[in-house]
Amino acid sequence: MALLEVRDLSVRFVRKSEPTVSAVDGVSFDVHPGSTVGLVGESGCGKSVTSLAIMGLLPGRGTEVSGSVNLEGSELLRLSQREFDRRRGKDLGMVFQDPLTSLNPVVPIGLQVSEVIERHRGLSRRDASREAARLLDRVGIPDPDRRLKEYSHQLSGGMRQRALIAMALACEPRLLIADEPTTALDVTIQAQILTLLKELVAETGTALIMITHDLGVVAGMCDEVNVLYAGRIVERAQRHELFSRPRHPYTAGLMASVPRLDSPRGQRLAPIEGSVADNIPWEGGCAFSPRCGNALAVCGERAPELETIEQGRLLRCHNPIGAAELERAHD
Amino acid sequence: MLRYTVRRLGQLLIVTVVLSVLLFGWLRALPGGPVSALLGERATEESRARLVQQLGLDQPLYVQYWKFVQRAITGDFGVSTGVQPGTPAMEVFLQRMPATLELSVLALLLAVAVGIPLGYFAARRQGGWLDNLSITWSLIGVAVPVFFLAFLLKYVFAIEFGVLPASGRQAAGIDATHATGFFVLDGLLTTEWDAAWNALVHLLLPAVALSTIPFAVIFRLTRASVLDVVEEDYVRTARSKGLGAMVVRGRHILRNAMLPVVTTIGLQTGALLSGAVLTEQVFNIPGIGQALSLGFQRQDYAVLQVVILATAMVYVLVNLLVDLAYAAIDPRLRTR
Ligand SMILES: Nc1ncnc2c1ncn2[C@@H]1O[C@H](COP(=O)(O)OP(=O)(O)O)[C@@H](O)[C@H]1O
Ligand code: SF4
Ligand SMILES: [Mg+2]
């Protein structure tokens, strides 16, 4: 059975003076215990909103959430904030994008780690603090006893993200959500943090939802990958399937825009033309059609459905990559 | 932290020196010079001449200034001519200071005790009835002049309904020992509970009147600050850890939201003092504010000097304390 079942999750932001934003639109996916699932897509496609909906951290007012988020048999969307507070940090944890702003500047690092231990593991302040030092050590922060008393401005960017990872994993949750955990970091630090995450996930058996706009990150970490576009999943596949045979034009576009070690020197990357600003609403056809090289007439008339094309593989496209080739092969 | 404190104390010294020069200059620039200022217009020629010599006004300016400083350091600002004629100005000040301090502290306590929680809850229920009510109230607090509000409070609660005393610091019939001059404190120290209570009751209306502006400022700043802070990523992190509402509120929201508020509390000392001048008039409280207005009316420059110098120093000192408190909350200031 799946650890987490997200079904038909939709999030709309309804504001009086502004048009309603449909940020997440009927998203469904499963996360199995101990596995790593990727959510990939350009900025603004709804990755963060999806993760915040799962965590119950979306702003209350003006936000309409529907569908179902089921963690180990209990429906999270129906929990009150008070009930949710007993689960967050314990059964599911989250690491955010910007470590600098995600740490409280006026609370010592140690207390920010130990408070979650105190809360969910029922340890005394002293024991929780000792445990916090052990955790800081585990995530690779040198001299943890001294760091406990320090504040976020005294830590480097990488150290801050390590501390945040320690907090999220302090109670060994079954599920960890990492929302672009390396985007705000230096390139050299990024790899270290990803390696650390991978180690910890393997060590604790925690399932991981890895959110990123960077297919390079996906290639290194994920078992299964969901590609999001304009709030909808457009393609899902096992990682090696996706990389060896991308079917959705958007997925292929993303891959073409990732620098590869084996690509010829000086060859220009091919970013996807246009921007999300060109999207049409899904109601009017395929949201990607204004930017899509494969677009057919039907694409601007009718939205494609998400269909199972093979075992474990989903696709939302009228004219996927390789379709013509496949047909030719049939003839 | 030590270096910071020393630097701020240095600033205090500079402010005091600059102010003493200004006061010295002011006294000499008065129509008729300091002699008329001290003796009044109708003094005889002999007494004028005597004073000129006594004050050393025939000597060069810098000598005069130095003498002024020497006397000021020993607390000698001359003798009151108008507020309490014949009493040394310093003594006048010391007698009156407790009344004003008591009033201002209570007013500030009221403003903080009401303004901060109200600011927090108004922000958390932004647009709700409590929010709208508090905003309206704080607007009225700022817009209505303090003396008018003081009159209104006095009229309604003291004269019309008679539930609170209309003037003074303590009922005349109360047998109270005054050891410190702070009447509430005196009553508590001597366990004369009725005296303490009576003094507190006398303080209530003037303190409420005096607290309106600091309340309004503290309330609005708390509200705005909380609205900013709840949007911060670290508050979301705190929630993602499932810390109960109490911890998120106290440790993660309020501690950060208080930073600008703490500074403002220091700046409010100025508003309190100017407010005290009017409030003390209305409720006939023999404090510094009253001494200041009487001092101007009766041109009692000796008393005015002490009061102005002392209030300026209090203002700078309070702000120093506030900055230290700020540094105590904000580690970024301490460890840089
Ligand atoms: N609180 C909010 N109010 C209104 N719109 C929002 C809010 N949060 C996110 N959005 C919108 O929802 C969409 C998805 O945002 P997000 O999930 O943050 O994207 P990303 O994939 O980059 O994480 C964006 O169009 C964004 O503008
Ligand atoms: S449905 Fe049409 S427009 Fe959309 S991705 Fe597929 S081919 Fe392109
Ligand atoms: Mg995001």
Overview of this structure, please?
The complex is a heterodimer of chains A (331) and B (336). Chain A has 331 residues and is an alpha/beta fold. Helix content of chain A is 34%, strand content 22%. Chain A has one domain: P-loop containing nucleotide triphosphate hydrolases (Rossmann fold, 3-Layer(aba) Sandwich). Chain A contains twelve helices and twelve strands. In chain A, strand 4 and strand 5 form a beta hairpin. The mean pLDDT of chain A is 91. With 336 residues, chain B is mostly helical. Chain B has two domains: 72 residues, no CATH class; 242 residues, MetI-like fold, CATH 1.10.3720.10. In chain B, helix 7 packs across helix 9. The model of chain B has no long low-confidence stretch (mean pLDDT 86). The chains are: A alpha/beta (331), B mainly alpha (336). Chains A and B meet through helix 2, helix 4 and helix 7 of A and helix 10 and helix 11 of B. The complex binds adenosine-5'-diphosphate (ADP), iron/sulfur cluster (SF4) and magnesium ion (MG). The site of adenosine-5'-diphosphate (ADP) has 12 residues of chain A, from strand 2 and helix 1.
- Major sheet summary line of chain B: none
* Main beta-sheet annotation of chain A: 8 strands, mixed
Roughly what fraction of the amino acids of chain A lie in strands?
15-25%
Assign the structural class of chain A, choosing from mainly alpha, mainly beta, alpha/beta, alpha+beta, or little secondary structure: alpha/beta
**Overall pLDDT score of chain A:** 91
Give the helix proportion of chain A (percent range): 25-40%
Q: Evaluate the radius of gyration of chain B.
A: 24 Å
Number of domains of chain A: 1
Question: How many DSSP H or I helices of chain B?
Answer: 14
CATH superfamily annotation of chain A: P-loop containing nucleotide triphosphate hydrolases
Question: The CATH topology of chain A is what?
Answer: Rossmann fold
Oligomer: heterodimer
- How far apart are the termini of chain A? 41 Å
Order of helices and strands of chain A: EEEHEEHEHHHHHEHEHEEHHEEH
Q: Outline of chain B, from the CA principal axes?
A: globular
CATH fold assignment of the largest domain in chain B: MetI-like fold
Protein name (chain A): Peptide/nickel transport system ATP-binding protein
GO molecular function (chain A): ATP binding; ATP hydrolysis activity
Family (chain A): Belongs to the ABC transporter superfamily.
Main location (chain A): membrane
